[in-house]
Amino acid sequence: MASFRSSTGSQQTRRLLTLALGLGLASAALGTASPASAHSAAQAPARTATAGYVGTADGAGSKAFFDAVLKSVAERQADQPSLKVVTVYYNASQAPSFRSQISSAASIWNSSVSNVKLQATSGTGDFTYYEGNDSRGSYASTNGHGSGYIFLDYAQNQQYDSVRVTAHETGHVLGLPDHYSGPCSELMSGGGPGPSCTNRYPNATERSRVNQLWANGLAKALAKVNRGG
């Protein structure tokens, strides 16, 4: 499993330190979310492949998540294959504490890439956001059956810039893997640069890669759907 890695010690140590300093103060300083309700990690769907903000990079998990979202979009777009820009719909109703961060992350990606756009829906989306407590931190996941979701962990989003965490996880939706050894200027470096990194934007290489993935990947997915594959 991959999640948002830190360069400052174990996640448990970081969380204890954060709690000692006061989560409320951290939240106020960073504009991060406080739990609106007692959602738990168990409420999120089962997962078989993951990629996220702390841990060892999992390229297979990232690809599985992207493929699940791509399949969902392709099935919906099959009758409109000529569209140059496709829309990926997300449902954020299961992560009410992070409504602002999710909206900001979507705006960041929408202003950064041209071949795909993110749009909120109150109905069935191509993926869903959840919130809760999980010792493994925040992550993007697929259940292996064509469904994907993003889980946002409360404590981790107090420790790190919450919009960066959310934008990073959303990057997996668009096809980008974790690259924890990268610099702060690289969004998919996640927690690698440490909590002081607050960059929320993908760099030029990441933007180009997403545009390429959605131009080529969607075309292949549409062809497969049209063949009945």
Describe this structure in words.
One of its GO terms (cellular component) is extracellular region. Belongs to the peptidase M7 family. Keywords: Calcium, Disulfide bond, Hydrolase, Metal-binding, Metalloprotease, Protease, Secreted, Signal, Zinc. Its cofactor is Zn(2+); Ca(2+). This protein has helices at 11-21, 23-30, 59-77, 99-112, 154-159, 162-173, 204-226; strands at residues 49-52, 86-94, 116-120, 127-132, 139-142, 148-153. It has 229 residues and is an alpha/beta fold. It has a domain at 86-220: Collagenase (Catalytic Domain) (3-Layer(aba) Sandwich). Strands 1-5-6-4-2-3 form a six-stranded mixed β-sheet. β5 (139-142) and β6 form a beta hairpin. The radius of gyration is 17 Å and the shape is globular. The relative contact order is 0.21.
SSE topology sketch:
Blueprint: H1 11-21, H2 23-30, E1 49-52, H3 59-77, E2 86-94, H4 99-112, E3 116-120, E4 127-132, E5 139-142, E6 148-153, H5 154-159, H6 162-173, H7 204-226
Parallel strand pairs: 2-3, 2-4, 4-6
Antiparallel strand pairs: 1-5, 5-6
Helix pairs in contact: 3-7, 4-6
